[in-house]
Amino acid sequence: MAALLLLPLLLLLPLLLLKLRLWPQLRWLAADLAFSVRALRCKRALRARALAAAAADPEGPEGGCSLAWRLAQLARQRPAHTFLIHGAQRFSYAEAERQSNRAARAFLRARGWDGGPGGGDSGAGGAGEGERAVHGVRDAAAGSGAARPVREGDGAAPLAPGAIVALLLPACPEFLWLWFGLAKAGLRVAFVPTALRRGPLLHCLRSCGARALVLAPEFLESLEPDLPALRAMGLHLWAAGSETHPAGITDFLAEAAAEVDGPVPGYLSAPQNIMDTCLYIFTSGTTGLPKAARISHLKVLQCQGFYQLCGAHQEDVIYLALPLYHMSGSLLGIVGCLGIGATVVLKSKFSAGQFWEDCQQHGVTVFQYIGELCRYLVNQPPVLETYGLTEGNVATFNYTGQRGAVGRASWLYKHVFPFSLIRYDVTTGEPIRNTQGLCVATSPGEPGLLVAPVNQQSPFLGYAGGPELARGKLLKDVFQPGDVFFNTGDLLVCDDQGFLRFHDRTGDTFRWKGENVATTEVAEALEALDFLQEVNVYGVTVPGHEGRAGMAALVLRPPHSLDLVQLYVHVSENLPPYARPRFLRLQESLATTETFKQQKVRMAKEGFDPSALSDPLYILDQAGGAYLPLTPDRYSALLAGDLRI
């Protein structure tokens, strides 16, 4: 009888929740709960692994850093399982362990460590990193053979514990063996973007304090003008291959091949503090010279849980065609694969024409992408999109598969991974604060700056170099006096159901005619035209005008031609007057970084001067209601104030 009395109340409950505006959020409660449970299990499993490593024998391989002990575990638990596929090459977890052990021993010889009693030095850390000192070390390298002298002749001093070794290598197996070997040897690694040469390359090496560089032989020709400066820096210089090398550069792979493949002691790499820096990853350089983001042992450990959070399993085959010097390729792709013990198909570069053949040949079940890669393959793929930053302390997951979303802002998710959206003034480039000087949370549907609290569980380590490099990345007094939040620099929108959608980068929003213009809004409108394949929208300064005028770089979709009449009609119908691009630039392909981010800053600096640019340029003629070629005469008229835009 009581159940019958409660039945009408249960039937009325959805109506009550709808009236209270709670139903849009609660309808996803089951998915929120499921992901939160998965996240908590993942955290618990990673914590258990870390505690087991801390309690392990420091002489054994499972007593080292997270990369060392995880690879050793997998080599013991799944020795024959395929870890890596690269072209016709296949490597098991046991082979990955052996290859990285050889690399570790070769790097240890550059440290002056001979594997004998005392270990030749006192642990894994560099100055200021606080790595563990070890006393009375026994010879843990049984059968290691006679000790060979440290290589001489390159003018570089022996590497100190915790020294930084830079890798300038494409995505290949050798990149992984050297990375893992450096970690096992207690050395820190810096992943250098492969396109850098001259000033930017030297800047990166100096900014992170590199003491050695391992480069790909195929890069030697383009690096020849840089070699004198590299030698002057006193770097150890190695090439990862057997081709003929200039004087002072030797083949590291040959040195590693001469080593035995037995495990190295874990104490060499075990950090005293999990917050110690173990890796440097450079920002993509969209706003200037790259900055070396500090990556801690904690972050590497956390990245072991990435694919588990995505719902992947150890029998999955992951397709990875991203640069390994980028966080998405190395930490999420490779370390995430180690976290679940799966298989990764590694490609040196992405090829849309070869993708499906590769997937069929290798039984690919997971494809990790960034930027525009997915658009090259299919129109509306079923995807689980995530959001994150190399140096950031926040990440979101679209675990429900909601189209267009990058995550959820449910109270359950924010309890596990806390973050907030706050109001932001695109004109001043600062958060909006109330009369008490505190930030203001956004309402549903309102773009807001994504921020995350900085604490011991979610730290921000900053960048190598001076503290001025991190200026603007930390916000204080956000919700309470004295609190500190990480500023992602990205604007997101949370709808009334709690779904997060990427809105814009703060630098991508510009102001024109007293109105704020979101580049994504303009780009989406233009991309609806069937003759346009790619669009990059940014703001440019115009002499005599306040703010920035909209400019769009366009790539045509073959075999179409540019229809200026249709384009003008389309933007007039779909964009408010202030958001319509004043300038157009027709290109063969869009300028992007090597991580597929559009080069908005560089394009904005190049401007719209027809005498300086070879690309076809067009200007919006307000009076005539059309886009016209931007000739030198029209450019002069614009500067003179005779042409109204």
From TrEMBL:
It catalyses: tetracosanoate + ATP + CoA = tetracosanoyl-CoA + AMP + diphosphate; a very long-chain fatty acid + ATP + CoA = a very long-chain fatty acyl-CoA + AMP + diphosphate. Residues 160-381 form the AMP-dependent synthetase/ligase domain. It is an enzyme of class 6 (ligase). Keywords: Fatty acid metabolism, Ligase, Lipid metabolism, Lipid transport, Signal, Transport. The keyword Signal applies. One of its GO terms (cellular component) is endoplasmic reticulum membrane. This is long-chain-fatty-acid--CoA ligase.
